[in-house]
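U., I forgot to send this yesterday:
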Amino acid sequence: MSRKLESASELEINLTNIRMLLIALGANQRDILIESVVSIFQKITDCHMTSYSSNVHYYNGWKTNSSYKINNKIIIPIKYSPFDRWDFNVDYERVNWDVRRWIDDIIKALQLIDPTVSNQFNSLSCQEFENDTLRFKMFGKGTVHVWFKNPKLLAQLNYICGSHFGWIPSEGEQKHNPEAREWVAREFGDIGEVKLLQEAV
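Result:
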């Protein structure tokens, strides 16, 4: 999709080309939304650890994180500047920029599924913040621990990404195969109908 947008940037700006671009964006809307959700999913799941991780020099991952789904608790590696002063961080807007960018990306992905997800956070301490959806805590060793407080929303995000990668039975398989339905119910619970924000409109 990014290549298509790059080639579109070389087009002459006129009414015909603008219409063509808007039609193309509309036709690819679902793919664009899924790519947005999958992008943060991949960033998080890249920080996993498996039995093979010890063979990789300087491997950076945690057992808390999985390679195939986002768990209720994840750990994100973020290096802090020595000039970051947590004792001054009394509100979310003053949190380290790299931390905020990670958290904001997670929130945006969740908002594509549920637009009521808030991007406002309350301070629990100079290093810990929360809202109804997430809680996160920054540690001096260069990590941020994130807890997801809405299991159903997290399951929906994992379902969308698992479907995208073909890791779970398709809707057709679930419809015709009781074992597929049981597996999805066991793995994801009652997630209801999963729709991205613009699809529901």
